[in-house]
Amino acid sequence: MENNFRVILAEKRKSIANVHEGTGISKTTLTNLYYERTKNPDSATIIKIAKYLGTTLDELLTVKK
Question: Is 90 exceeded by the pLDDT of residue 1?
Answer without folding.
Answer: no
